[in-house]
């Protein structure tokens, strides 16, 4: 009886390991698929990529946001990027393009805007690879070199 129980527990444990490995491979595949879809559209314009796992957030958000000349972010419907995060202000931050460079500005938000982990106080120039933190959300700024 003990041997049957031991074999059963072993097979259940092995099954759980395979199940776990399957889900890890699936997540990697889906992430690579999203990146390839993004690259297949061949956007040369700068964009923001969500760094957070979407499943960990309690609101809907896109993976990628293409940047225009002026982008506003916040909870208000009128923003270009509306993020329904309880830690976001209605008008939280703005990204502006000037002379082919992008600049990040906090719009007086209560919880602040962070660039690479440091709260910004003034307008700052963005470079590719910068991490922008707004409330619970973190974006990666990507500007591909021509």
TrEMBL record:
PANTHER family xref list: NUCLEAR INHIBITOR OF PROTEIN PHOSPHATASE-1
Keywords attached to this entry: Membrane, Transmembrane, Transmembrane helix
UniProt keyword annotation of NADP present: no
Protein name: Forkhead associated (FHA) domain, binds pSer, pThr, pTyr
Source organism phylogeny: Bacteria, Bacillati, Bacillota, Clostridia, Peptostreptococcales
UniProt cross-references to Pfam families, sorted A to Z: FHA
Transmembrane segments: 12-32
Keyword Transmembrane: yes
InterPro entries registered for this protein in UniProt: Cell_Proc_Reg/RNA_Proc, FHA_dom, SMAD_FHA_dom_sf
FHA domain segment(s): 71-120
């Amino acid at each position: 009886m003990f041997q049957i129980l031991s074999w059963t527990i072993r097979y259940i444990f092995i099954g759980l390991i395979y199940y776990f490995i399957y889900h890890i491979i699936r997540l990697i595949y889906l992430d690579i698929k999203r990146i390839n879809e993004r690259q297949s559209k061949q956007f040369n314009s700068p964009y923001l990529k969500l760094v957070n796992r979407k499943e960990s957030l309690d609101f809907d958000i896109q993976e990628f946001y293409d940047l225009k000349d002026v982008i506003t972010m916040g909870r208000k419907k009128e923003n270009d990027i509306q993020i329904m995060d309880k830690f976001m202000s209605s008008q939280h931050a703005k990204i502006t393009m000037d002379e082919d460079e992008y600049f990040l500005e906090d719009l007086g938000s209560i919880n602040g805007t962070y660039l690479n982990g440091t709260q910004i106080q003034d307008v700052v120039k963005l470079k590719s690879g910068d991490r922008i933190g707004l409330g619970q959300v973190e974006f990666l700024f990507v500007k591909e070199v021509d």
